[in-house]
Amino acid sequence: MPIHDEGPELNAATPDAPAPAGEKSPTSIYLVSYPKIVFLYPSFFVALGAGIWTLLSGGTPDDDPGVAALVFLGVLGMNLVVLSFDFPRATSLTLFFCAAALVLGAWVSSLLYPDLLPAVGTFLSRLRPYADAQFYFVFAGILGAIYIAVWATVHLDYWEVRPNELLHHHGVLSDLERFAAPNLRIDKEINDVFEYLLLRSGRLILHPSQEPRAIVLENVFFINRKERELTQMLGALQVRVRKDG
User: Fold this and answer.
1) Which residues pair with residue 187 across a beta bridge?
2) What is the rounded distance in angstroms from the CA atom of residue 241 to the CA atom of residue 187?
3) pLDDT digits (tens, 9 = 90+) for 86-105
4) Phi then psi dihedrals of residue 71, to 5 deg
5) Which SS3 state, helix, strand or coil, does residue 6 take?
6) Quick one: CA dihedral 80, 86, 88, 91, positive or negative?
7) Do residues 203 and 217 make contact, with C-beta atoms less than 8 angstroms apart?
8) Would strands 185-190 and 238-243 be described as parallel, antiparallel, or unpaired?
9) Does residue 158 sit in helix, strand or coil?
10) Which helix (H) or strand (E) holds 228?
């Protein structure tokens, strides 16, 4: 399990730091939890670019060097790694980049010096994946349709924080649950470095004072800004920041 560093804790008796000059405290903050599929957006854009490149170049399996396909597969592979594993600390990120650098170095060395690693050089020389423009556009279209569905879904299930209450909007008919906001405690967790780099996302855990269960919101975008806005709005807010690395 990742080790969390406990940050400063504010309670109801400790006044919050004043907002920066010229910055007004918001009157309402919306918190939306997104599924992990949103982190595949680099593959979506690379698929669009590869499709346009393949369409304009008019390449065929016989004369295409497979660069577009290799770039697409590489980005997709890294995206799937981000979805499959958590990189909670800076050391994990360093190890990942070291491993990627070693693989890339071995690949470049085998291309420049075929006799250095003959088996690897022979394999890479025969590695020429190919996909036509239609494949890339279909892949991007599927992801695009999923993103539209996600966008529509999150508008039917989201949280709204006001100075005196916490509201849960959900359902097609906008069902509403109300919780008391005073003495609301919030835990902020950044458990994956890559997910934070991609969308500045993290986990928010809300602890209403009169509720026995915590409310966990995964993959909240721009989590640091949300936490700062919550602190400014509620003034005397108990905030416990847990951040890796």
Assistant:
1) 205, 240
2) 6
3) 777 666 667 777 777 777 67
4) -65, -45
5) strand
6) negative
7) yes
8) parallel
9) strand
10) helix 223-234
